[in-house]
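Protocol step 4 of 6: structure prediction from sequence.
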Amino acid sequence: MTDKLADNIHVVSVNISEKKGTIKKPVKEITLTRKGIEYDAHAGDWHRQVSFLGVESIQKFKKLLSRELHFGEFAENITTSGMLLYKASPLDRFKIGETEIEITQIGKECHGNSCAIFQEIGSCVMPKEGIFGRVIKPGKINAGMLMEYLPRTYKILIITLSDRASRGEYADRSGPEIEKKTKEYLEGLNWRYQMDYQIIPDDGVKLNELLKRAKEKNVDVIFTTGGTGIGPRDITPDVVRGLLDKEITGIMDMIRLKYGQEKPNALLSRSVAGVMGESLVYTLPGSVKAVREYLSEIFKTLQHLIFMLHGIDAH
């Protein structure tokens, strides 16, 4: 789970510029609308409506300059103190007064010659440590206001389908393996999470109900394990495919081909992956070894897919 990054964050300056490519100037107050900051050149229907930079990052550059730095010189809209902002993640949020801003990007491409700071010292902090966001709740912000950091908590659902395990005839091993590997993955990203793990029989009606409930709750990622073969009780891919809005065929095709070259039986899996509402769904085979193999490939694109699903082109 993510550690708290700051206890006392506050706004030290609010800054705007009416033209792109110019230094932003401190103002008494800014007004956030659904399109960004009023009278600021970067407002619009896109994912980088508001920019932030911490004084902690600005301090790094003071020793490189023979003069004082002024708020807004790095083209940040909101200058803060009390948190290493660049350690936050896309989809986390900041609450300032009545406003709420969702982080969409950490850093950006440097404009080089069009950046005044870059021209002066040959480098700039914004490309690595500036962060950008989009307005979720409009309102007004001024210097001195407290800022609350709201890291996103990702909701994960793991469903094991097994008649025998659901009756207690043997202990499920694949579900706990998904839980273990997913925790390791999320903690490696420093993401908060809530995890729900359930065992049900190979029952299409029960699976359908669980998936629909997860969709209503906007569960971020759903993993199923078991029921991906061709036996009479193997119904998982059929139920899941019927609920998907978009199927992501490449992931499972690649996994089948990769492991099927050495073990032809791996080609017999009917596993599917796709999008259901705001949820990503993956159906995995029922063996521990297969779970490890599948997750090792799924995790390579999972973070990017989550961001894409929420309209974020993060880098």
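Step 5 (inspection) to follow. The chain has two domains: 9-150, 153-309.
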